[in-house]
Amino acid sequence: MxxxxxxxxxxxxxxxTQLETYLAxxxxxxxxxxxxxxxxxxxxxxxxxxTGWDADPxxxxxxxxxxxxxxxxYRNKSGFSALPGGYRLYNGKFYDVGIIGYWWSSTExxxxxxxxxxxxxxYSNVSRSYSGKGSGLGKVYGFSVRCLRx
Length: 150
Known about the structure:
Layout: E1 8-9, H1 13-25, H2 44-47, E2 87-88, E3 94-95, E4 100-110, E5 113-120, E6 127-130, E7 148-149
Antiparallel strand pairs: 1-7, 2-3, 4-5, 5-6
């Protein structure tokens, strides 16, 4: 909750949903469609930096790591430039750098956990989950942050 500088704040789960809805409804789906049943399904590549991500060995349609140049117009189309920073555990070690990126929200899901978003090199969607998943370690994970101007 204190990761952002003065005049900025960590977005709530609802503010993340607002971003996702805007992108899906305004031409950021990897296939050029608008909206969709699940607004998170096709926008990951438009949030992800064009570099730094591991290649998807299966080349799934619209996946961040899909190397097909047909998706180049959608890579980082939003300008968000999400990097695959992986995550840091309580032991101080980083894991999955290049493969996945996690971002906190300010909305708690349970006492020891908070809602988050993550991008994975082999996915075309933005995933919504909560930290820890019952481990009791939720808020001790090191994830990236997105700061919004107040």
